Amino acid sequence: MKLLVPYDGSPQSDKALDTAVHLAQGMGGAIVVVNVVPDLCLMSEEIPAGDCDAVSRALDMNGSVALHRAGEKLKGSGVEVETVMKSGRIVDSILDVAQERSIDCIVIGAHGRHKALRMLLGSVSSKVAELSSCNVLIVK
């Protein structure tokens, strides 16, 4: 079984990652951990054009740190792990990775790190569950 965990470093994504590890260990599965850096400059007129590069660099750095942290958490788990960094629309990117990697189940936290992003983008977990062609486990 191949599991996909969208990971942003939030406590909810940590819970999703822990759940995915437990499932993968029990079934001899593999985990793909993805961090998606949203292109807020294209999605919001609230960010001045001059600030877009700085915002993008900060989000890229946060994403890299989150993926490194996830990889460190999974060392010694006995589970095959792949990490993927994407940029773009969060839901679309998660679904693209799921399709590209032939994912059996997406294990996602009920909500992520950024309340402001949730207000701007809506509930990522709800949209993923609605649009995914594979099973989705939402972890509270």
TrEMBL record:
Pfam families xref list: Usp (PF00582)
Listed CDD domains: USP-like
UspA domain boundaries: 2-140
Superkingdom as given in the UniProt entry: Bacteria
PANTHER family membership: STRESS RESPONSE PROTEIN NHAX, UNIVERSAL STRESS PROTEIN UP12
Family: Belongs to the universal stress protein A family.
Name assigned to this protein: Universal stress protein family
Native source organism of the sequence: Nitratidesulfovibrio vulgaris (strain ATCC 29579 / DSM 644 / CCUG 34227 / NCIMB 8303 / VKM B-1760 / Hildenborough)
